[in-house]
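Homework help board

Subject: predicted structure for assignment chain

Our instructor gave us this sequence and asked us to write out the predicted structure in token form, then describe one feature. I got the tokens but I'm not sure how to describe them. Can anyone check?
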Amino acid sequence: MININDILHIDTPEKFSACALNLFRFQAEHCAPYRRYIELLKIAPTTITRVEDIPMLPIELFKSEDVYSGEGTPEIIFTSSNTGSTVASRHLMASAEDYRKTFLTAFTQFYDDPSKWSIYGLLPNYLEREGSSLVFMVDELIRRAGRGGFYLNDYERLIADMEADDKPKILLGVSYALWDLAERYAPKLSDTIIMETGGMKGRRKEISKRELHDILCRGFGVEAIHSEYGMAELSSQAYSTGEGIFRTPAWMRVLVRDINDPFDHTPQGMRGGIDIIDLANISSCAFIQTQDMGQLYPDGSFKIEGRIAGSDIRGCNLLVHDLL
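My token output:
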């Protein structure tokens, strides 16, 4: 089986394609929900010779099935956040260390070594529950940075600590908490990147990313808002340095599908449903059909434009019911 070091050293499209096809054939055999899904599609794995033709597993199955292709018992299980009215997704991982290597490699690619930063986490809804992959990641980044920390609701202490910190800083927060902080205190933090990660989680009204970023830019006195795109079902993260345009590490790729025909990937520049290939998901499933809507650009970057209305009953998601 491909190991995580093979994945993290991918540096050409050819290596990506070779690893993706090898991992697909392995997971098509060893990941039971994925195998059953492919059987329902009446697809023979040996007939797949292009990355674009690899079937994408509907992300809903992480809520009802053990999406796992590793050997032995999973070492760690991450769960998604939910509002209490939905079932949380579960991501079974064979190795916590593989996850650690993955997010550290991606972070370093986009932001340099964590030790060059002070990292502050404003993630109240994630800290209030167990099993968050985001908290696991930020906790390790803070540890390697050597300065910073998690802050729940003590905004005044957060501001004081950041103002006294002379290192370059990253304030990574969930959207509604950053909005609260900007609205209540409007702190003008020097030498600081503001990075948002996720929506309002039912705490504030949903607004567009552009509106949110305008509010945060004014509140914090910065020119651009960075963003992190990840989820419990992924091992990797994409990052945006502004304008909501995300870029992925070399072992991760985004495709856009026609929302009316989930087996048809649209031309670049067209809007559609987001499919993600995350080859670091070596012990679960690397090929995921998300419920996000977005746009793909010619250089492989992408933008998220919200959720797909009615995604639970659209297209090949109907096949999910045959697996439950």
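Reply (TA_rk): Your tokens look well-formed. For the description, you could write something like this. The longest helix spans residues 13-30. That's the kind of observation they're looking for.
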